[in-house]
Amino acid sequence: MNHFDVEECLRSMVILVDTREQDTKRARERYKRFPCPYKRQALSYGDYGYMFNLPDGTAFPALSEHEIIVPVAVERKMNLDELAQCFTASRKRFQGEFERAKENGAHIYLLVENANWENLLTGRYRSRFNPSAFLASVLAWQIRYGLQLIFCKEESTPVLIYEILKRDLKERLESGEFDR
Hints:
This protein has 180 residues and is an alpha/beta fold. It has seven helices and seven strands. The chain has a single domain, classed as 3-Layer(aba) Sandwich (Rossmann fold), CATH 3.40.50.10130. Helix 1 packs antiparallel against helix 7. It is globular.
């Protein structure tokens, strides 16, 4: 794929927002800050993925009424409390999502807003989840699923989601992954 084809594909990128992501005022504000269009679509894993048009006009991935499989996904959590919930009460569901991603060879980025390592390590969150167990779960997930963990401020989330997805797509296009 030549440079112009890559640029054309990147311009056609649409951020897919999982239909399970709650449609709140805060979420709609986040979506407005994406520098490209977005579409709500059931994803097999993660909260955000992408679609784009190949140079021949074919959409990838093809949308369907069912959950679609994306090559990269961003999972967003609003804070350490929500993440702790995923590793405790919701662990089975959370693990299932990461297993599906791993089975499909997808890369997963976990974006945790309003958080940092120091707060996780010292237990500065509302959950009763033991800091050592919390750390062990996070690190095990990183190793087991190739998870990329990113702590950020809430206001950085739209830019980070867009840039992660765009850079992933650009790398895949330039490596020839979508060449026919």
